[in-house]
Design goal:
This protein is α/β, with parallel strands linked by helices. It has a single domain, classed as HUPs (Rossmann fold). The protein is built from eleven helices and ten strands. The protein has helices at 26-43, 61-73, 91-106, 115-119, 136-154, 165-177, 181-185, 210-219, 236-250, 254-272, 294-329; strands spanning 15-17, 22-24, 52-56, 78-85, 109-114, 158-160, 190-191, 200-202, 279-280, 287-288. It has a six-stranded mixed sheet with strand order 5-4-3-6-8-7, sandwiched between helices. Strands 1-2 form a two-stranded antiparallel ribbon. The chain has a two-stranded antiparallel sheet with strand order 9-10. Strand 7 and strand 8 (200-202) form a beta hairpin. Helix 6 (165-177) packs across helix 9 and helix 6 crosses helix 10 (254-272). The longest helix is centred in the last third of the chain and has 36 residues, at 294-329. The chain is globular. Bound molecules: adenosine monophosphate, FE2/S2 (inorganic) cluster (FES) and zinc ion (ZN). FE2/S2 (inorganic) cluster is lined by residues 86, 123, 135-136, 139, 229, 231-232.
């Protein structure tokens, strides 16, 4: 006989939550997921009910679950969806389609930043730069900067991202193992802006395991991408997540316990770890630890690379012509 849902005690249970020793039916699981979002937002005072909250939607399951979950958990809250079209061949078109379907279905206003149209390059163009094997790195820097620009354009002061429990604990572990204390401090659930150009960043899914985001999105019939980014590779964070996966098999509450301990550690670290001194980027005006920020440097690199390539392709037919003429002279 199938197990009965622990909450409603009437329908068959389909979802087993081993860390909570509980099995739920799909409807009760969705309520449980939404309650957890509400409690997380309240626990960390992420935003107030009268705020307009920007939600960074990528086309993936996490941010789809986040947008729908926030709508259910806070029915009166004004939400605006923000998407960066990265111009990655096939992948970005697919993501944008899903984002449009999701926001249309939930009747949420959508703002899109089209990288190719606005800045003249795509993330694929980093293949021509020394980042060719680790495109995720400049992509992350560019996305983070553009989230702020999009949020400003949409007039939102709070920006929610779909980072889940696995992402947060994986990144915490990676920065911890690297001894990068100032970066670890920046992983807190609420990151206040460092300048008026930035928004407050919040992670309402930080207590939601990745697998549950997928289940929630599927049970709620949300559109989300079913292809992966062609540039995703074996990053350090990914490898540490595999390590966490193995540890969680032995102790299902491992990630939750690790997160709670990290969250206790952060205020202590904050008192003792000096953040690198910040100045203002002389190109874009955003806070930066160098004269020109990482975003502006990556943009300059890819634009210069594309320009050199354009010059070379203009010269090539000329050079070929010269060679032919020289050959005719011989
Ligand atoms: P990732 O860094 O790809 O794991 O994404 C983490 C979170 O960042 C997602 O859950 C989204 O909230 C946000 N995000 C990532 N890519 C995009 C994008 N292209 N446009 C808007 N938001 C994004
Ligand atoms: Fe950024 Fe894949 S989404 S490299
Ligand atoms: Zn800059």
């Amino acid at each position: 006989m199938p197990a009965i849902c622990r909450r409603c005690r009437s329908k068959p249970a389909e979802v087993r939550l081993p860390y909570a020793r509980m099995s739920l039916c799909p409807d009760c699981f969705r309520r449980y997921f939404e309650d957890r979002i509400r409690r997380t937002v309240e626990e960390f005072k992420m935003f107030k009910s009268q705020d307009t909250v920007g939600v960074a939607v990528s086309g993936g399951k996490d941010s789809a679950a986040l947008l729908h979950g926030l709508r259910q958990a806070f029915p009166g809250l004004k939400l605006v969806a923000l998407h960066v079209d990265l111009g990655i061949k096939k992948y970005s078109e697919h993501c944008l389609e899903k984002v449009r379907a999701l926001t249309r279905g939930l009747e949420v206003e959508l703002h899109v930043f089209d990288l190719k149209r606005e800045l003249g390059f795509s993330i694929d163009d980093f293949r021509l730069t020394p980042y060719r094997r680790k495109i995720c790195a400049p992509c992350g820097t560019i996305k983070r900067h553009l989230f702020d620009e999009l949020a400003r354009e949409a007039g939102v002061k709070v920006l929610a991202t779909g980072h889940n429990l696995d992402d947060v604990v994986g990144t915490m572990l990676t920065t911890f193992l690297a001894g990068d204390w100032s970066q670890l401090v920046r992983l807190k659930p609420v990151l206040p802006p460092l300048s008026p150009l930035q928004t407050r960043k919040v992670k309402p899914l930080l207590r939601s395991p990745e697998w549950e985001d997928l289940l929630y999105a599927a049970y709620s019939d949300l559109p989300f991408r079913d292809i992966g980014c062609p540039h995703a590779g074996g990053t350090r964070v990914r490898r540490n997540q595999e390590l966490l996966e193995a540890l969680s098999r032995r102790n299902p509450a491992f990630r939750h316990q690790t997160l709670n301990n990290f969250l206790r550690l952060i205020p202590i670290l904050e008192k003792h770890v000096d953040q690198p001194p910040l100045t203002t980027c002389r190109r874009c005006g955003y806070p930066s630890s160098a004269e020109v920020c990482a975003y502006c440097r990556r943009v300059e690199l890819v634009k210069n690379t594309l320009e050199k390539r354009r010059q070379r392709s203009k010269l090539n037919p000329l050079l070929r012509g010269i060679n032919r003429d020289q050959a005719n002279d011989i």
